[in-house]
Amino acid sequence: MTGQRASSRPETHRGAPVVDVDLYGDEAVDDPHRVYRRLRDAGPVVWLPRHGVFAIGRFDDVRMALRDDATFRSGRGVAANPLANTLGHYTTLASDDDTHMTRRMILMQSLTSRAIRPSLPTLEREAVATVDRLLTHPGFDGIADFATRLPVQAVAELVGVKVSPEQMLRWGRATFDGLGPTNRRARRSLRGSLGLFLYTIAIGRRHVTPDGWAATVLDAADRGEIGRIEAKNMIIDFVAPSLDTTILSTGQLLWSLGTDPEVWRQLRAEPDLIPTAVVEAVRMASPVRVFTRSVAAHTQMGGVHLRPRDRVAVVFAAANSDERRFDHPERFSLLRRGSNVGWGHGVHTCVGMQLAKLEMQTLLRAMVERVETVSVSDPIPLRNNCLQGLESFRASFT
């Protein structure tokens, strides 16, 4: 009987329940919410033996860890493999304290609400043109033809690097794949992520437009606010995350409106709810599903003792679907209030959040004025180590 009782106890690692799941595998990518529920239900902190990391997936715990940047550090990298953490050393994402704030403030010069306001007429024209064009088509791809259009046409130009938007997309997707463990996807993406790294190392004034965002980072280096190598690497902060995350959130927005006609009717009747719809789409999309943090000091979380240099996977997407925080998290609701962690939380909140909101709201306003019905079908999930969303789906407007 004693042996039976012992064998019935859940396996633990230093007090954390063991969850034997590949967080970055095809199963978790294709059916993520089942995996996220396993993480949340197992406990506040779990151990993932396949990756050798702890993980947190409940909303309150994720938000607490993101707020406690003195304990859960980004400066040793946010990837699940050492190579990516080494390559990302000079980026804003992989920094802490004064270094992070200096880099962040330089990026924010281009990304505050005031700074992006002059771009609004361009975004509005492109949004109207996109919706009008798609209204003439019997069907279109919700990602390639709708969600991708505004970021690619507008944001790629604003970044101001002399590479094609398509190349930026390839680099961005490869970079996010490279932030997972050294699995098949990460190895396959290595050429792309290294290509972006080598491009930024070689970048100079001749590679950027004088009034683009990238130029402002080089200007900061000229003023001595950051080092030259630091500035070159910080351009990754513009190139890698500026497209995919907004595209995936916009795709989720369109998919949600197409699968719930009542929500679309409500939004058309009450366009003041457009900002709420955007926030809810980001919650449901959770386009960056997981980053890691390195523990800086001994700490307790959920009865688990975490030690310095422990690696913890912070699963944003699991937190945003936590039933403890959100009633019926699987539903898209225009009545939902309160924050989510789709753009992060704390000092590492997404610096491009205001621009992403503006792009999505602008597209929605163009739709509300022109589109009566939205239909969607045939979703194909994106397979990426750290990004989450739809690769493609069919859609139509009437």
From TrEMBL:
A Pfam family that the UniProt record links to this protein: p450
One GO MF term attached to the UniProt entry: iron ion binding
InterPro entries: Cyt_P450, Cyt_P450_B, Cyt_P450_CS, Cyt_P450_sf
Family: Belongs to the cytochrome P450 family.
Protein name (Swiss-Prot/TrEMBL): Cytochrome
Keyword Iron: yes
Coiled-coil annotated spans: none
Keywords of this entry: Heme, Iron, Metal-binding, Monooxygenase, Oxidoreductase
